[in-house]
Amino acid sequence: MARRNLAHVKADTIDQAADVLRVPAAHYTDPARFQLEIERVWKRMPLVLALSAELDGAGAYKAIVAAGVPVLITRGSDGEVRAFVNSCAHRGAQIVTDESGRARRIVCPYHAWTYDENGALVGILSQSEFGEVDRSCHGLVRLPVAERAGLVWVVLDPRAPLDIDAFLCGYGELLAEFGFGHWHVVARRSVAGPNWKIAYDGYLDFYHLPILHKNTIGAALPNRALYDAYGPHQRVTFPNPALAALDEGPEAEIPTEDLIGGVWTIFPHVSIATFDAPARAVLVSQLFPGATSLESTTVQTFLLANEPSDEERVAAEKVFDLLGYVVREEDYATGLRQQRALLTGARSHVLFGRNEGGGQHFHRPLARMIDAP
Predict the structure, then answer these.
(1) Which of 87, 219, 232, 246 has a CA positioned 20 to 30 A from the CA of residue 325?
(2) Coil, helix or strand for 354?
(3) What is d(CA 100, CA 106) in angstroms, rounded to the nearest whole number?
(4) Are 73 and 157 members of one domain?
């Protein structure tokens, strides 16, 4: 990929799609379309719901709500990751209300029904008074789960198959080069935003960087992009003259981190943006649809490759704060205004230019999935 990038630098070219793509404006706002997206994409596709670094040892757990489904993810004493619907077999209450923690047993806060790390029901409060219940039929509902490249994927439909290798199309081998399982979480926050596709379009778009972000992070950035696709997943970079070093020495001596910069997106909802300051870092953005077509939530996590010193942690938090401002006050504020304008119905379509191949490659497979039986 770096050699292809350098070839574009030397030729002063970029990747271009065959034509301009027209996407119906109603795809961003129509409630019926939104419900199809929930059922045919969000509840069928593997979603990145955790980082391996968040489940750092036996008993670690994470609770998250994705597309309206409460999910509990745990790491067992055998090192395996498991996922469940976060719902007690008694009355359906959420059994874990904290976002994260560590426990050998999970106890429902409503009536103290207790589950082990495999989701088996192992304790019923006052069972002699409650009555006979077959515990083997009343465990937590398991969800398909897979761990690759320091990331944890979950399918929200308990009956769905999960072939993570087929889904990743070779992309997981590239993501594994980061070694995310050993990175360190510095900070996290949630950001409210517009329709999830309006928000996600921005992560695939370098065209806007020196314009919308001219006063923050974009003044020195080009508006030109290169795209490498693996199935529906994409890595976005810009033509980088610094890659001329590829011609100056043995390829094996080039540090991997010099080759894997850019924005790595995982369909349908994750962006991993790389940074070099204050140390090697990534911003992982997990985008989730809201209750309606007009809202979304993005969970942003800032990670450093190495355990930070106190000074590096302070500096990293400042970078994280800046990026939060950029996303909240520039990207998503613009998206919310865009959404209001589209709701007027004044425009039938939005456009993705030949230089916006990332957006095209996102919307085309998305439309095919929604139209599929």
Answers:
(1) 232
(2) coil
(3) 12
(4) yes
